[in-house]
């Protein structure tokens, strides 16, 4: 996949966000990251991205969470706690944390 495949990462936790950035950049993805959904939605970089990796923590305490997710208008990979049962919704692929192996990379490559 070429560097033109850009991934937006929206993860409030700094350590997890940096870890995901590193893992994606090693695989030659262009990465733009944010600690919150509003910043990601407002960024022109997000409009040019191919997909969004979104941690569920960024949606907590937001009654309009799914509306926010749909606002990205591109495939979303939602990272959720392994103990939560969230079904895949239209346009949202659910990946359970902790991410094992190359689950995230495989999911992104399926999009591209």
Automatic annotation (TrEMBL):
InterPro entries for the chain: CheY-like_superfamily (IPR011006)
Xref: SUPFAM superfamilies: CheY-like
Name of protein: FixJ family two-component response regulator
């Amino acid at each position: 996949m070429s560097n033109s495949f850009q991934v937006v990462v929206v993860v409030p936790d700094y350590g997890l966000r940096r870890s995901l950035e590193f893992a994606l950049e090693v695989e030659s993805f262009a990465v733009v990251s944010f600690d919150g959904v509003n910043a990601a939605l407002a960024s022109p970089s997000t409009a040019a991205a191919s997909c969004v990796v979104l941690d569920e923590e960024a949606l907590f305490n937001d009654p309009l969470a799914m509306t926010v997710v749909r606002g990205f208008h591109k495939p979303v990979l939602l990272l959720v706690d392994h103990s939560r049962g969230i079904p895949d919704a239209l346009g949202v692929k659910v990946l359970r944390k902790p991410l094992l192996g190359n689950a995230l990379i495989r999911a992104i490559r399926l999009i591209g």
